[in-house]
Amino acid sequence: MSQKMWNWVVFACGFGGYVPLAIGGWEHPIELNMATFSLWAILSIMMFYSAYLQKYDGWYMPLSWAFGNVSLLVFAVFLPGTTFNLGHSETIALFGLITVIGAWVVIGQITRRWNHRILFLGSILVDVFSFYPQLKQYLLPHEAPTVWLLIGWTLFLLSALCNLLFVERLFFKLRQTGRKLLPALEESALSIENIVLIAITIGVMTQ
Q1: In the list 112, 170, 201, 207, which could disulfide-bond 188, CB 3.0-4.6 Å?
Q2: Other CB atoms within 10 A of residue 206 CB
Q3: CA 41/CA 47 separation, integer angstroms
Q4: Which residues, 6+ apart, have CB-to-CB distance to 4 below 8 Å?
Q5: Which residues pair with residue 15 across a beta bridge?
Q6: 3-state secondary structure (DSSP) of residue 163
Q7: Global pTM?
Q8: pLDDT tens, 118-177?
Q9: Rounded to the nearest 5°, which phi and psi values hold at 33?
Q10: pLDDT tens digits for 76-114?
């Protein structure tokens, strides 16, 4: 299969992961925290924007998340019983987003060069922290996650794996003569981070 086709596989899995989340939200509206998905929407747009402008191969994945989060927010607006809980973790993530965007704008104004690496790497750091509330919830005594939730997270994991192996082709790039290690790892940092943290999240959910 061509890389272009794999791009659409990644997009389909990434966006498709929100479908079971929406179904689960329909059955249990309280599980849809609009504050969390609002933050994820902003975060995924930042990731897509910075990856696309840096001409990274894997920008279809954050694009699928941007569409998915925005679509889920629109769905949640018209669904009675959803919540808007801006808790301690969400507040820290919000300030993290503001800090990253602020640093990007200030440095861009001073240097007259818009360094999109700041947005990309900064949004990854915020994304790492955004997994904490989910992990904390399932590390404590909890009800078994719904099958819809597990399907959604599994599709996200599949999207990240396909992105790393068949779109970004990290291991192929690392075997190339003269290919620098750090730039290749940086380009695939979002996929690597999500593979690790989503796998851990699924493992904690199913304990």
Answers
A1: 170
A2: 10
A3: 10
A4: none
A5: none
A6: helix
A7: 0.92
A8: 999 999 999 998 887 777 767 766 677 789 989 999 999 999 999 999 999 998 888 876
A9: -90, 105
A10: 988 888 888 877 777 888 899 999 999 999 999 999 889
Distance CA 179, CA 85 (A): 45
Cα distance between residue 80 and residue 147, in whole Å = 22
Distances (CA, A) of 32 to 155, 159, 185: 18, 22, 33
Amino acid at 125: L
Q: Which two tokens stand for residue 151?
A: 């399907």
> Per the structure block, which two tokens stand in for 140?
């404590």
SS3 track for 28-97: CHHHCEHHHHHHHHHHHHHHHHHHHHCCCCCCHHHHHHHHHHHHHHHHHHCCCCCECCCCHHHHHHHHHH
